[in-house]
User: Fold this.
Amino acid sequence: IGQQTDLGQALDNLRYNEDGLIPAIAQQHDTGEVLMMAWMNKASIEETLKTGQVCYWSRSRQTYWRKGESSGHVQKLVEMRIDCDGDTLLCLVNQNGPACHTERPNCFYHKVTGDKIEIITEPN
Amino acid sequence: IGQQTDLGQALDNLRYNEDGLIPAIAQQHDTGEVLMMAWMNKASIEETLKTGQVCYWSRSRQTYWRKGESSGHVQKLVEMRIDCDGDTLLCLVNQNGPACHTERPNCFYHKVTGDKIEIITEPN
Assistant:
């Protein structure tokens, strides 16, 4: 515990996929609610750490995805963690408003129930 | 809320990557602790749902990764959820023992602190 290594080196050594991306899980820091999962590249990780607001990389638009930039549903970064083998990030955040583009609190609203999928939350 | 669709169809329609894989987040069902992230293919999802024990797909070994098969650190599935755009799974589980292969409770034990990375948990 407490052992420290250099951040820049760690970011260089993350196991990005062939598109230079790494999955980032957003979790509400105080309730533990898993809000969403999206992708970051090195530049968006650096921007997230610099600004304190979560910035993903949009795979469809091939550009920065500053979460909440248009909706106002920003994610303030509370803490960033890296997993054991450096291929996944966990962002503890403070989510403003709904995290999901469907206006639901989080993106995981389809629940498997027997041989069905059931919707478990409504848009806010 | 409560709207149901067919599970088989939903599993067919998941947005697997070019290797037929989808990221699956494991979260401890009662504490909200995010334990790990790994990958599943359709067959491992079906096995997970059938057996009630989480089964990933090992990208390095290219075979089923029945979590805890050798270590005993199994993940009993409590609930499986699918996100809004069908490209990520959230598995609420009951983790037996440490989730991480380092014998830590979860895999996210590197914390970004300023320009350093700090280890925040020790092996159990």
